[in-house]
């Protein structure tokens, strides 16, 4: 059951194509991900147009537990889920697995979009690690559902966001933009009035396009199904059910971490084979490169000896 699942568009949708005009669009589930301090909570407040999440400017994370808040976009319900610091380079503790399990529960049966929040002009090694952790926590399939949201849009000045992304020399960011299918937008989380409505419209356009591309699918795997069943059980779910669920959380994450390592190993092997094939098919060029390298080494050794005299 890995991959994407199609959403159910209400009871009328089952009647056939002619009934689709009466279908009610399901809630849009948006999961906020990214490193600590990137502005996830403030971004959630901008999306909902109200101070739903606690957001303060400080070094330590404000969000200590997964939190969900609801709003509406033109009559459609949206569910925004803010996440605790589970995407950092730190040990996989029992507390972290509990937080991950809570994120699955609150976004079950699966998020339509993972909104990766990062600060404009400050995509660092921490952000790269956060992206890797997102893949480990939710699976590599997440990249099909990911949208990059840059905070501090006001820092763009006269430059457009497309120009900034196109001209950046940050290779990690370039790779991420390609991997996300060039889906991105930017927020000024201090914006109000027309500016706030304008940037929300830009985000909604990106999400609408993503929904069309995925035909209404949301991210799903076995653990999301477990979480959905447990959540629907409500208070009837006992301590034993929760214990089994937490065991499933650990197993699912360990499986996804293992699959990610295997996928990366395969990529390295393919890159080595391509290089080997290129060398084999360009014997003359390869020989010239080797000779040039040897000449350079001889000259470098001679230069070093002369400097030593």
CATH architecture: 3-Layer(aba) Sandwich
User: What percentage of the residues does DSSP assign to strands (E)?
Assistant: 5-15%
- Counting DSSP H or I runs of 4 or more residues, the number of helices is 9
The strand count comes to 8
Low-confidence segments: 7-22
Q: How many discrete structural domains?
A: 1
Q: What is the gyration radius calculated from CA atoms?
A: 24 Å
Q: What is the topology?
A:
Layout: E1 3-6, E2 28-33, H1 40-48, E3 67-73, E4 76-82, H2 94-107, E5 113-119, H3 125-138, E6 146-151, H4 161-167, H5 171-179, E7 184-186, H6 193-213, E8 217-220, H7 222-233, H8 239-281, H9 283-308
Helix pairs in contact: 2-7, 2-8, 3-8, 7-8
Short description:
With 309 residues, the protein is α/β, with parallel strands linked by helices.
């Amino acid at each position: 059951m890995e991959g994407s699942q199609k959403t159910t568009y209400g009871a009328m949708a089952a009647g056939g194509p002619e009934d689709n005009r009466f279908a009610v669009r399901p809630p849009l589930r948006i999961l906020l991900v990214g490193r600590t301090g990137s502005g996830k909570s403030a971004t959630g407040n901008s999306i909902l147009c109200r101070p739903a999440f606690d957001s303060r400017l400080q070094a330590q994370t404000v969000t200590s537990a997964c939190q969900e808040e609801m709003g509406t976009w033109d009559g459609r319900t949206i569910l925004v889920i803010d996440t605790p610091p589970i995407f950092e380079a730190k040990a996989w503790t029992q507390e972290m697995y509990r937080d991950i399990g809570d994120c699955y529960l609150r976004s079950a049966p699966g998020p339509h979009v993972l909104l990766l929040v990062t600060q404009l002009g400050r995509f660092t090694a921490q952000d790269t690690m956060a992206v890797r952790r997102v893949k480990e926590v939710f699976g590599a399939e997440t990249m099909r559902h990911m949208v990059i949201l840059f905070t501090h849009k006001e820092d763009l000045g006269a430059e457009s966001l497309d120009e900034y992304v196109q001209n950046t020399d940050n290779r990690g960011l370039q790779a991420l933009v390609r991997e996300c299918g060039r889906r991105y937008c930017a927020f000024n989380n201090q914006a109000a009035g027309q500016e706030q409505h304008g940037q929300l419209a830009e985000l909604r356009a990106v999400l609408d396009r993503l929904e069309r591309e995925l035909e209404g699918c949301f991210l799903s795997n076995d653990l999301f199904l477990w979480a959905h069943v447990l959540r629907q059980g409500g208070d009837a779910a006992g301590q034993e059910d929760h214990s089994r669920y937490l065991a499933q959380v650990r197993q699912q994450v360990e499986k996804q971490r293992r699959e990610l390592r295997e996928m990366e190993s395969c990529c390295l092997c393919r890159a080595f084979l391509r290089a080997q094939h290129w060398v084999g098919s360009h014997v003359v060029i390869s020989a010239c490169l080797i000779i040039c390298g040897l000449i350079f080494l001889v000259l470098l050794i001679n230069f070093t000896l002369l400097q030593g005299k």
